[in-house]
Amino acid sequence: MIIERIESRRDQLPLELAIIEPEGKPVGIVQFVHGMAEHKERYYDFMNYLATNGYICAIHDHRGHGASVRESGHLGYFYTEDTSVIVDDVFQVTEYLQDKYGALNISIFSHSMGTLVARNYLKKYGDGISRIVLCGPPTKNGLVNVALILAKVTGLFHDKFAPNKFLGRLSLGPYNKEHTTQNSWLCSDSGVVDAYNADPLCGFTFTTNGFTNLYKLLKSAFNSKDWKSPKKDLPVLLIAGDNDPVIQSKQKFIDLEKFLRTVGYENITSKLYGHKRHELLNEIGREDIYKDVLRFFSAD
Asked: 49-72 pLDDT, tens per residue?
């Protein structure tokens, strides 16, 4: 395990990066883009699995997450409302890996909010990657403009570093309605949910600034007008659990694939896993998902 700290070129925010290298000659690089209100350490198990199969794996804490904060009380605060900054952070890590490891192919595994970042990354930097996985992807939401207005209004009544609990209930509250245990919509493995709930670096409520960035990323991810010259043959793997509330519905998941085809991606594989929830990498039976993703990364 290698831990590095790099400074964001956009505002010099320290970003903590973890790298796991294989023992033998590497066959490629997988860069991870994690989800909302979690941190890089939650991906180490899958990263170790890929490393045993020859891949260099790297993940950084998004700004406002994990160790990528200026102070511990800043979780959920992004230090900007310009979403290109979080996208450029991801690309800066890509460039760091290219400089460190040379000409190896780089693929991306993104999860949840991370898929919003990754979809915006594709608009600017997609030509430089070999493959991409979009796991548990948020689908199109017609209320995103209303949410942005509510963020602007409610932000007037919140300190900039304070959690906006109103927006938290609005955005995530419905996911818990059908579950007796907080956050069990994430995963059917109760041990994973308990660990998430006990982790101070997980499940925190975003600040108004954090939610504003989230909504802007969602809106931009479905703006086809600035999606110019995509790498048409880029292999895209779109995966989710069929009991994942983040995809909203099976039809919305299908519509997302259609949207990606509309903007120009022609090599898309999609799969809904039966009886699975949001965090596929942590689900019961995750070994099969590990194998499926490895098969995708290693395909000719």
From this structure: 999 999 999 999 999 999 999 999
What's the whole-model pTM score?
0.97
Q: What is the side-by-side order of every strand in the sheet holding 14-20?
A: 2-7, 14-20, 55-60, 28-33, 106-111, 132-135, 236-241, 268-273
Q: Are 207 and 77 in contact (CB under 8 A)?
A: yes
Asked if 84 and 216 touch (Cβ cutoff 8 Å), the reply is no
Residues in contact with 11: Cβ distance below 8 Å, sequence separation at least 6, in sequence order: 79, 80, 85
Burial class (CB in 10 A: 0-12, 13-18, 19+), 46: buried
Which residues pair with residue 269 across a beta bridge? 237
Element (H, E) at 50: helix 44-52
Give the chain's radius of gyration (CA, Å).
18
